[in-house]
């Protein structure tokens, strides 16, 4: 069953390429192209005797295999892919809007937007002039590696570029699905509870960087930055932190520095690979 | 609800196995799901009943082995039963522990006919 239209096929995911020039969307892929739809092959006689199959197969192994393939795409193209995860409304799109505007001349960037229903976030990104595809997951609560793979082939990012992936706003499910990204960034805003890292540990455990956003609101809320860091470190002692305000601009320089380091690390990894 | 994607993946795996065995359907399926695998059993039930209709799993009996979580402390080496996510070592309070089991998310076996 498809989670969106209730048809008997898996999928129901829509991927829409947003046309930045004309400012309107042009669907280039839809349900008809879902690759997971199965075709049945006839010919073989089926037997009705019972047989036991010992399998021991990881349920998410297909996603992991696909994620490995995506990673290969990114590495081959010397591309930095960053997966942004957070609760709904923590400021993923706002962070991207400002980042894309500020770093326009530094990197060629692309955005893959994940959202259950709307094209709103992709339209906000398109307004900055950045190339973007919107993945609508319907009832699905996370992006998976197959959706990213289809998006990569649509965007066809040029060598040496940066691909930002905005995951569906959800603190639980995206953590389980490797997309093939090089870095995962968890965003928490100061209007949320500072015990979030303890309540939703998987997200913080699987990320390399934690951005604490909306620090312009700190005077008005009961949120302890130190406690958040302490709780998050319990879950993931290797996590780094950057405090910023995506709308007012405080702290953005540190984030750009982090991106630059990640970007350069990809470059040196590639040189090492080439020299072997 | 990622439980739905988990069920969709199970259906894919089962369909593949049924085809390979030139069988028609799955009579029973045994899953191994660790208590720290991040799966809510209620959500899994709900997704299951909706998703398996008209698939090889539509009449399959489902058996779930819940694997209890056991971790080993990276500091003192104590092995202990984990009762809540990211529980520190009960002996030395160290938080860096390694899961020995409890994160399984696997199709263990199938009976097809
Ligand atoms: N005060 C303040 N508001 C912010 C900041 N960053 C984002 N916001 C506001 O928070 C709201 C949500 O921001 P978005 O950027 O849409 O958040 P999101 O994470 O993309 O949300 P979803 O895609 O729905 O999950 C908007 O009203 C933003 O203007 C910030 O640094 N300070
Ligand atoms: Mg958004
Ligand atoms: Zn459908
Ligand atoms: Zn490919
Ligand atoms: Zn979910
Ligand atoms: Zn210990």
Structural class of chain B: alpha+beta
Strand content of chain A: 15-25%
Q: Please give the domain count of chain B.
A: 1
CATH topology of chain A: Rossmann fold
- CATH class of chain B reads Alpha Beta
Q: Write the H/E string of chain A, N to C.
A: EEEHEHEHEHEEHHEHEH
How many beta-strand runs of chain B?
6
Q: What is the CATH class name of chain A? A: Alpha Beta
Strand count, sense and barrel status of the largest sheet of chain A are:
9 strands, mixed
Strand content of chain B: 25-35%
Strand order of the largest sheet of chain B: 2-1-6
Overall mean pLDDT of chain A stands at 86
- C-alpha-based Rg of chain A, rounded: 20 Å
Average pLDDT reading of chain B: 92
Low-confidence stretches of chain B: none
CATH architecture descriptor text of chain B: 2-Layer Sandwich
Structure commentary:
- The complex is a heterodimer of chains A (276) and B (113).
- Chain A has 276 residues and is an alpha/beta fold.
- Chain A has one domain: Rossmann fold, CATH 3.40.50.
- Chain A contains 8 helices and 10 strands.
- Chain A has helices at 61-76, 92-102, 120-126, 145-155, 196-199, 201-205, 225-235, 252-275, and strands spanning 14-19, 24-29, 51-58, 80-86, 109-115, 131-136, 162-166, 183-189, 209-213, 240-243.
- Chain A has a 9-stranded mixed sheet, sandwiched between helices.
- In chain A, strand 9 (209-213), helix 7 and strand 10 (240-243) form a beta-alpha-beta unit.
- Chain A starts with 13 loop residues before the first strand and ends with a helix.
- Chain B has a single domain (2-112), classed as hypothetical protein PF0899 fold (2-Layer Sandwich), CATH 3.30.2320.80.
- Helix content of chain B is 27%, strand content 32%.
- Chain B contains 2 helices and 6 strands, in the order αβαβββββ.
- Chain B has helices at residues 2-20, 41-51, and strands at 26-34, 61-67, 70-73, 79-81, 97-101, 105-112.
- The longest helix of chain B is centred in the first third of the chain and has 19 residues, at 2-20.
- The two termini of chain B are 31 Å apart.
- At the A-B interface, strand 3 and helix 6 of A face helix 1 and strand 6 of B.
- Strand 3 (51-58) of chain A pairs antiparallel with strand 6 (105-112) of chain B.
- Residues 73, 75-76, 78, 89, 91-92, 94 of chain B line the site of one zinc ion (ZN).
């Amino acid at each position: 069953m498809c989670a969106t239209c209730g048809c008997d096929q898996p999928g129901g995911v829509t991927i829409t390429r947003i046309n930045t020039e004309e400012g309107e969307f042009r669907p280039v892929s839809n349900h008809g192209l879902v690759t997971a739809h199965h075709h049945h092959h006839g010919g073989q006689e089926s037997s009705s005797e019972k047989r036991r199959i010992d399998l021991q197969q990881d349920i998410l192994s297909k996603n992991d295999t696909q994620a490995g393939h995506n990673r290969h795409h990114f590495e081959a193209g010397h591309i930095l892919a960053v997966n942004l995860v957070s609760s709904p409304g923590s400021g993923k799109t706002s962070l991207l809007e400002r980042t894309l505007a500020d770093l326009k001349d530094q990197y060629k960037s692309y955005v893959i937007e994940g959202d259950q229903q709307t094209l709103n976030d992709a339209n906000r990104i398109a307004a900055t002039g950045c190339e973007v595809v919107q993945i609508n997951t319907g009832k699905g609560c996370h992006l998976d590696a197959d959706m990213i793979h289809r998006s990569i082939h649509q965007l066809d990012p040029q060598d040496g570029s940066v691909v930002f992936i905005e995951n569906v706003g959800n603190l639980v499910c995206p953590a389980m699905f490797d997309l093939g990204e090089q870095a995962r960034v968890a965003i928490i805003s100061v209007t949320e509870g500072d015990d979030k890292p303890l309540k939703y540990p998987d997200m913080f455990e699987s990320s390399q960087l934690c951005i604490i956003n909306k620090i312009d609101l700190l005077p008005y809320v009961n949120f302890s930055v130190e406690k958040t860091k302490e709780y998050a470190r319990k879950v993931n002692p290797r996590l780094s932190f950057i405090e910023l305000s995506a709308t007012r601009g405080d702290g953005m320089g540190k984030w750009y520095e982090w991106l630059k380091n990640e970007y350069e690390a990809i470059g040196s990894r590639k040189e090492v690979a080439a020299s072997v | 609800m990622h439980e739905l994607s988990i069920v969709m993946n199970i259906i894919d795996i089962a369909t593949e196995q049924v085809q390979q065995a030139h069988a028609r359907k799955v009579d029973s399926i045994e899953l191994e799901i660790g208590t720290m695998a991040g799966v809510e059993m209620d959500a899994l039930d709900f997704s299951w009943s909706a998703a398996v209709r008209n698939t090889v799993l539509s009449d399959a009996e489902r058996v779930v082995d819940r694997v209890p979580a056991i971790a080993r402390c990276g500091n003192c080496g104590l092995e202990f039963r984990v009762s809540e996510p990211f529980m520190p070592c009960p002996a030395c309070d160290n938080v860096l522990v390694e899961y020995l089991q409890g994160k399984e998310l696997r199709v263990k076996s199938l009976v097809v006919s």
